[in-house]
Amino acid sequence: MAHIPDGVLSAPVLIAGAIASAGLLALALRRLDYDHLPAAAALSAAFFVASLISVPVGPSSVHLLLNGLMGLLLGWTALPALFVALVLQAVFFGYGGFAVLGVNTLNMALPALLCALALRPLLRRERPWSGARPVFWIGAAAGGAGVLLTAVMLALSLGLSGQAFIPAAQVLVITYVPLALVEALITGTVLRFLQRVEPDLLPGPRALEVEALP
């Protein structure tokens, strides 16, 4: 249930999510790195496809998010990449909806940005690469944190919309714990693979730019 459908959230939550997402997207577009556009397109497509494969877990279902990986590799560019993928999913498959698009974008893109703020500088300091372990664990931290932060934000979105949603929100967070472990393994493995075959795709000296707001 990473995509909250229309008709669930309260109007104040929808409005706050839309405003926050619009502000973050405006900042991201001002800081857009055109060198990242090919990677952004590829990762946005990967997110689009991964979100179509859901696995039932208890009363809900989960799917790969990849927002931690996108945050690490793209920085601010991850925000418009996720937004575009969510718009396409809403248009073609009815996932989520247009009224809730701001909240869904915020729930997935803000964790990606937080992973970038916290971990891209650490990844940059591993150049020249000192070994596989640091890169793997940085990726694993981003993958797990991206999922858990999204789960918490989903729960907050539901909880702030009404007391009746609080039990479902608590269950939702629990169901995302195994997904966080899977994404940690996948993200760490992907970063280790990129380190070996295409290290230029990993953050270089410009990664610290993500730490400062314009």
Layout of SSEs?
Blueprint: H1 11-30, H2 37-50, E1 55-57, E2 60-62, H3 67-74, H4 78-93, H5 101-124, H6 132-159, H7 166-197
Antiparallel strand pairs: 1-2
Helix pairs in contact: 1-4, 1-5, 2-3, 2-4, 3-5, 3-6, 4-5, 5-6, 6-7
SSE string? HHEEHHHHH
Number of strands: 2
Q: Any low-confidence stretches, pLDDT <50, length ≥5?
A: 206-214
Largest sheet: 2 strands, antiparallel
Average pLDDT over all residues: 84
Structural category is mainly alpha
Helix content class: 55-70%
Instruction: Output the CATH class name.
Output: Mainly Alpha
Compute the number of helices.
Answer: 7
Would you mind describing this structure in some detail?
By secondary structure, this protein is mainly alpha-helical. It has seven helices and two strands. The chain has a two-stranded antiparallel sheet with strand order 1-2. A hairpin with a 2-residue loop joins strand 1 and strand 2 (60-62). Helix 2 (37-50) packs antiparallel against helix 3 and helix 4 (78-93) runs antiparallel to helix 5. The longest helix is centred in the last third of the chain and has 32 residues, at 166-197. The termini are far apart. The relative contact order is 0.18. Mean pLDDT is 84; it is low at 206-214.
Name its key features.
single chain; 214 residues; mainly alpha; Arp2/3 complex 21 kDa subunit ARPC3; two-stranded antiparallel ribbon; 7 helices; 66% helix; globular
